[in-house]
Design goal:
Layout: H1 6-14, H2 33-46, E1 53-54, E2 60-64, E3 75-80, E4 95-97, E5 105-106, E6 114-115, E7 131-133, H3 142-160, E8 169-174, H4 188-191, E9 195-201, E10 206-211, E11 213-222, H5 238-247, E12 264-272, E13 276-285, H6 288-306, E14 313-322, H7 326-329, H8 333-345, E15 351-355, H9 360-366, E16 373-375, E17 388-389, H10 390-410
Parallel strand pairs: 3-8, 3-9, 9-16, 10-15
Antiparallel strand pairs: 1-2, 2-8, 4-7, 5-6, 7-17, 10-16, 11-13, 11-14, 12-13
Helix pairs in contact: 1-3, 3-10, 8-10
This protein binds zinc ion.
Residues 80, 143-144, 177, 200 line the site of zinc ion (ZN).
Length: 411
């Protein structure tokens, strides 16, 4: 096992069902995530990481000890073990397509499922590579088991090559990232890291140091209920008030009409009766000011709609979800600079980008552990068309090894 490649490890991890479940109150949300956790602990112990363990929250911790006298900041590499609830992760049957010749990839378990070059232009950069797909009936779980396989393989490589000098390297594998609880129970004291990197991005060479800033808004409306037979001039139907608010949301500030660095206001749930209605929205922007502007606009819409309903009232509540990690990372530019250098040394031209979403890293950054996101190589996350190439996973392994080396050199 000590000579396992990143591909060997990846194929072993993806067949273990680790789907998380947002409706579960437990931590981890599904007990089966620990099956992968236990396997990882065994493997980490086998490669010589003697403190590897699975904690009661379903997280795996391990340490690659420093082999230098220099004072190098402790860095952590982090990936999540769970797969998304969006698509089944039971009975994953990974398919290995060696020496990809180009063209669309027909998945053999479902004639409807074809990975088309037109929809997945990244395939054009994969000619001659070995591509792992599903059989079309499940997701693959490259998100984020590619990241885990890469981190474990890099750790094994560092242990086997002591001539590569590095500081203390911490490994952290979390549960329940896909349901937004990935870092709820991280023990920062035990981890003892100064900076971290999630290996949870897509295309080879990409580093993400920016995410959305995100809030949730809950609007509760109380209308005036009365028997419809006596309602003239008196009834104020909360369902209609909520409908009027949704109707006035600007069409150009929606997920379906925005891209890049544009934010949006997006209704996610609506329930109601004549007497009361509840409307849930999410607000996204790359700046705090943009977020505040959108929330003010939203409340102005509500106030304006309510003018026509003098007997009704509303409650408007903003809940912070996560913040753009760039704010934190800009205070420590060496974190991203070192990662860019590692990508270069691993033979790629680095690409810096932003994510229209959040990561474990965006929350970790604001919990005191600055944490950009590095590519793991997977594509078409959360779907049966998910794929990853062996060569891109190997590039990620190299990037991790080089990153460990860069931190030591520059210490
Ligand atoms: Zn992920």
């Amino acid at each position: 096992m000590t000579t396992d490649t990143v591909l060997d490890r990846f194929l072993r991890y993806v067949v273990i069902d680790t789907q998380s479940d947002a409706s579960s109150p437990t931590q981890p949300s599904t007990e089966k995530q620990k099956n992968l956790g236990r396997l990882l602990v065994d493997e980490l112990l086998a490669i010589g990481l003697t403190d590897a363990h699975l904690d009661e929250h379903g997280y795996v911790y391990a340490t690659v000890p420093a082999n230098t006298d220099k004072q190098v900041p402790v860095i952590c590499f982090c990936s999540h073990m769970d797969t998304a609830p969006d698509f089944t992760g039971t009975n994953v049957k990974p398919q290995l397509l060696r020496n990809y010749a180009g063209g669309d990839i027909q998945l053999k378990g479902d004639p409807q499922q074809v990975i088309r070059v037109t929809d997945h232009p990244e395939l054009k950069n994969q000619i001659g590579n070995d591509i792992v797909t599903t059989d079309g009936t499940t997701l693959l779980g490259a998100d984020d088991k590619a990241g885990i396989a890469e981190i474990v393989t890099a750790a094994q490589f560092l242990i086997a090559n002591p001539d590569i000098r590095h500081g203390t390297i911490k490994l952290l594998f979390t549960a329940d990232e896909e349901i937004g609880r990935g870092v709820d129970k991280v023990d920062f004291k035990k981890l003892g890291a100064k900076f971290a990197y999630t290996m949870d991005g897509e295309t080879a060479g990409h580093i993400e140091d920016e995410t959305f800033s995100a809030d949730g808004v809950e609007i509760a409306i109380s209308g005036v209920a009365i028997h419809p037979g006596f309602a003239k001039g008196r009834m104020e139907n909360a369902i209609k008030i909520a409908g009027a608010i949704v109707d006035r949301l600007p069409k150009e500030l929606a997920p379906e009409t925005t891209e890049g660095r544009e934010g949006f206001v997006h209704p996610t749930a609506l329930s109601g009766s004549m007497e009361k209605a509840a409307l849930s929205l999410i607000v996204r922007d790359f700046t705090d000011e943009g977020l505040a502007t959108k929330e003010k606009m939203l409340e102005d819409i509500v106030k304006d709609v309510m003018k026509a309903y003098p007997g009704s009232t509303y409650r408007f509540e903003v809940k912070q979800q996560y913040r753009n990690m760039k704010k934190v990372l800009d205070r420590h530019p060496e974190i991203v600079e070192n990662a860019l250098e590692a990508v270069r040394r691993a033979g790629m031209a680095p690409v810096r980008g932003s994510i229209r979403g959040g990561t474990d890293g965006s929350r970790l950054s604001f919990m005191g552990l600055p944490c950009p996101n590095i590519f793991a190589g997977g594509h078409a996350f959360h779907s049966p068309l998910e794929w990853v190439s062996r060569q891109d996973m190997e590039r990620a392994v190299k990037t991790i090894v080089e990153l460990a080396r860069v931190w030591e050199e520059r210490a």
